[in-house]
Design goal:
It is a single chain. By secondary structure, the protein is α+β, with helices and mostly antiparallel strands. It contains three helices and four strands, in the order ββαββαα. Strands 1-2-4-3 form a four-stranded antiparallel sheet. Helix 1 packs across helix 3 and helix 2 runs antiparallel to helix 3. The longest helix is centred in the middle third of the chain and has 17 residues. The chain is globular and about 40 Å long. Bound molecules: zinc ion (ZN). The site of zinc ion has 4 residues, from helix 1.
Length: about 160
């Protein structure tokens, strides 16, 4: 089998950031997959599972309800390596096209109070595994990195 595109990126040189992971064409539509990399691979500790789970629930809810982006939202979900998330949106997009959306998303999670959407036994396969405080901490940290606006955090290493 061929190596898939995301395994061809040198994870030893990959920094945390917001990257275009791949683009796929389906008929006339282009889908852009973003790599929302919260952690430097194989270097810093990964996110804990409850925080990832809470970010997944909150981000999916936010994106599916967003006034401008809901119709273009295809998928949001965690990477199995626990260093980040994948976001798939309709359109031929660059990281800076969605940076305002991502900042809005991270701000929303950082300020979230109340019940985590979908965290009930009828709606989720492991509903009690949540950590809102750590989810907020991870999102604030990632947002601070993105706000530095360094090219190296938006373009894969050559
Ligand atoms: Zn869940």
């Amino acid at each position: 089998m061929e190596k898939i595109a995301s395994f061809q990126i040198d994870h030893l040189r990959l920094l945390p950031g917001l990257y275009v992971s791949r683009k796929d064409k389906f008929g006339g539509a282009v889908l852009t997959t973003f790599d929302m990399r919260f952690k430097q691979p194989n270097t810093e500790p990964v996110m804990d599972m409850p925080a990832i789970h809470t970010i997944e629930h909150l981000a999916a809810t936010f994106l599916r309800s967003h006034k401008d982006w809901a119709a273009r939202d295809v998928y949001f979900g965690p990477m199995g390596c626990r260093t980040g998330f994948y976001l798939i949106l309709e359109g031929d997009l660059k990281p800076h096209d969605i940076l305002p959306l991502i900042i809005e998303l991270l701000d929303w999670i950082a300020a979230f109070t109340g019940d985590i959407p979908g965290a009930s036994p009828a709606e989720c396969g492991n509903y009690s595994e949540q950590n809102l405080n750590m989810a907020k901490w991870e999102c604030k940290r990632y947002e601070a990195l993105l706000k530095q606006n360094n090219d190296k955090n938006f373009t894969y290493p050559e």
